Amino acid sequence: MIPLLLLSSALNLSQTVLPAHGAITGLVCIADPTGTKCPETPPILTPAAPSDTQITIGVFVNSSAALNGFEVILVADHTIINPWKVDMTNSIIGSSASILVQCIGGRPKPGTTCSALDGPDTLHIGAQGTISFPPTTGLLFSATYNITGTTKNTPIDFKTGCGSPTNPTSDTPVCVTITSGTPQPDPETTQSAGFSNLPFYAIDASPPTLVTDNGASNSSLITLTSLNGFSGTVTLSGSVNPSGPTQSLFPTSISLTAGIQDFSTLSVTVGTTVVPGNYNITVTATTNSSFPLNSVIVHLMVPPPDFSISSSPATVTINATSSGSARLTLASLRSFAGTVGLTVSPSSGLAASLNATQLMLQPGGSNSSATLTVSASTGGTYSATITATSAQLTHRITVSVVALDFGVSSKLQSISIPQGINQSYTFTVRNDPLACCFLGNVTLSTSVSPLTGGIAASCAPSLIVFNSRTSQSTDVICQLRGTVLGDYTIVLGGQGRAGKLFHAAVLVVHVQAPDFAIAASPQFQTVQAGSRANVTIILTRQSIFNGTLSVSASVSPTGPTTAFNVSTVMINNSNSAGAVALAITVPPTFHPGTLTVTITAVNGSSPGALTHETTVAITVAAPSTFHDVSIGSLTTDTSSPTVGDKVKYTIVVYDLGNFQEQVTVVALVGDTTVDQQNVTIQQGGNATVTLTWATSGWTPGTYVLGAKILSVSGEQNTGNNLLRSTTPVNLNSSSQGLLSAGNLTLPIGILVAVVALIGVSIYLFRYRTRARTQTS
Question: Pairing mode, if any, of strands 515-521 and 486-496?
Fold first, then answer.
């Protein structure tokens, strides 16, 4: 077997760090692939129909630690069922997990190898995929076998002979390795299955494990199931190993009918003298000699004598600084007898003690107790852990302790009050700041610092009585009057439990002179150059201010102008607030950017004037009207003129701005102007201009033609004022051959001579013909 852990290392598989799974031991089993977990007892698998030529089995993991890979070797008689293929669909590590080992019937999949343990009877599969989280239960893989023979019951099991002390499997020597990528495989146990395609029967037990005390009885239901049409009488017998407990079956003989189930009850009795430990009860089923034996094992655990510890109540509730208690009871389990030692460990802030640290426990139930006493000086939630020990047995319980207290609170940390004016403020006292509910009296007192007489504070009530186990709160109203400007600290203190508990709330009071506040709205806005921004200024009376406020504004950077609807506002007792409208006018030529407007309100004259200011930010955008003209298109009537020709330009120009424009359009050869024309373009319109290039005097060659608009006043974007043709023009020489305009004299003379020669020839021909005719 190829060790999966080593194989993973060789392939540099990723490792995921998970919480330590400690003693988690899972189960790897063979079962019906349509299930979701391992059955309680080993199943016998049968074909879905007698004519089926294949059977698919599932290999599951039950309650395992985290895993992301496995390696398993199955073994079965290939003359009965011959391994054919494996399938990772719905695998707990992912349907697309990487196949690391695949050897079926001793034949390796390309890219993998078989081990010395592989052969015709084995199916060997190893895979690695995504990590699971504990406890893990689900399908590892499914395997399909070809049915090659008949059998009443052939085992399908896990191969053995794998693992070593230095390279263990999950259940050495069983060939099952479950891993999460860590150096040690997950611990597992295994459970096999059987295959049957002839009449037979299955035997199962529920529950398969019994826990029974000395002197007690228990039972498990034995189920017989007809397979493949089996019918007949099945006899049941039982045995216990090692001896000690007794067992009996009823009935011991069952007439099983084809296609049904029938039942027997296994009864187990554990005597008082049976040694605690683990026992196996084997229930064996037999029929006539042509059928093999079938059996199921019921595991019996007889626990040793023990004891338990409990607390009444489980939670102790007390007032802070007082004490409370709980009764700790020890109970004998399974005839336990002996001395039990007690210790207590309280959490921080809790005092705890026991009235007894050793108790003698006799067999026969709850017969010994101790008292736990707890107290806390401050409110809160605490715990006390009591440990009970006798020889190797240790049990712990935790008793919760809630110490109740009251609380004094203030919604605000500080307030401002006007000089010479009575103001009220409310504190709150509750009986449940931590938990419900403190019981008792709370006496209240008020203190002021500094003790200069600059502020007076009087609070009521001075006594609060909490007498209900329901949440309660009481408002304490304090009357405040400040006569001297400054900051003062008001402390409302509460005492409870005859002064053992004290809580307070602190409020800082600022006694302020008559004043006013200034605010502006909106604080941020955007306008276009050439427009106006409007701001509202609110002036608010504070304290007992009375007076006239003068407002002014400045703008940075300079350029925009400001104007108020009024320049002064009267604030007094009958007019506690006033509004002023401010207009900021931005000139059309102002460069886009941000303006900072500072608004100032002043009462009185310097020195000693009362002044406040606020600012607003105005973003200036480009104006919505603008100049912009553009060359839209350029065409010429020829791309191969001859020196002396005139080339015609057709140019379309556009007005993209908000004004009618007078523009000059020029025709270019390279960067040389060869013609120009003035034209008027209507706002948003276009015009077509025809210009000419007279090529006389130009040197033959290749030229790039273009058109350009001379920029107009106020135009910001001139990038679209120039357009050049994408097709160069080839200017040809005026001398182009014999028949060109300058060389026509010679060809015409030759033509005249040719015509004369032809005429003479025709004359001579006719003359000779006439002479011959006359002679004849």
Answer: unpaired
What is the rounded radius of gyration, in angstroms, for the C-alpha atoms of the chain? 54
- Which tokens belong to 671? 């960067």
Q: Which tokens go with 672?
A: 């040389």
42-67 residues labelled b (16+ CB within 10 A) or e (exposed): bbbbbeeeeeeeebbbbbbbbebbbb
Q: Residues 73, 1: contact at Cβ < 8 Å?
A: yes
- What is the average per-residue pLDDT within 35-54? 93
Dihedral of CA atoms 671, 676, 680, 682 in degrees, nearest 10, equals -40
Task: Name the pairing type of β-strands 686-694 and 629-636.
Answer: unpaired
User: What gap in Å lies between CA 80 and CA 77, rounded to an integer?
Assistant: 6
> What single DSSP character describes residue 600?
E
d(CA 601, CA 599): 7
Query: How many whole angstroms separate alpha carbon 24 and alpha carbon 39?
Result: 19
**Average pLDDT taken over every residue of the chain:** 89
How far apart are the C-alpha atoms of 500 and 739, rounded to whole Å? 132
The predicted-structure confidence for 638-694, as pLDDT tens digits, reads as follows: 999 999 999 999 999 998 877 888 999 999 999 999 999 999 999 889 999 999 999
For residue 760, the 8-state DSSP code is H
Which residue pairs from 656-662 have beta carbons closer than 8 angstroms and sit at least 24 positions apart in sequence? 656/628, 656/629, 656/630, 656/684, 656/720, 657/625, 657/626, 657/627, 657/628, 657/629, 657/683, 657/715, 658/624, 658/625, 658/626, 658/627, 658/683, 659/625, 659/627, 659/683, 661/627, 661/629, 661/712, 662/712
At 448-489, the pLDDT tens digits run 999 888 999 999 999 999 988 888 999 999 999 998 989 999
Burial of 741 (0-12, 13-18, 19+ CB in 10 A): exposed
| Strand stretches in 313-377, DSSP E | 315-319, 323-333, 338-346, 350-354, 358-361, 365-376
First to last CA, the chain: 131
Give the whole-angstrom CA distance, residue 154 versus residue 46. Answer: 11
**How high is the pLDDT of residue 623?**
72
- Sign of the alpha-carbon torsion through 345, 351, 356, 359: negative
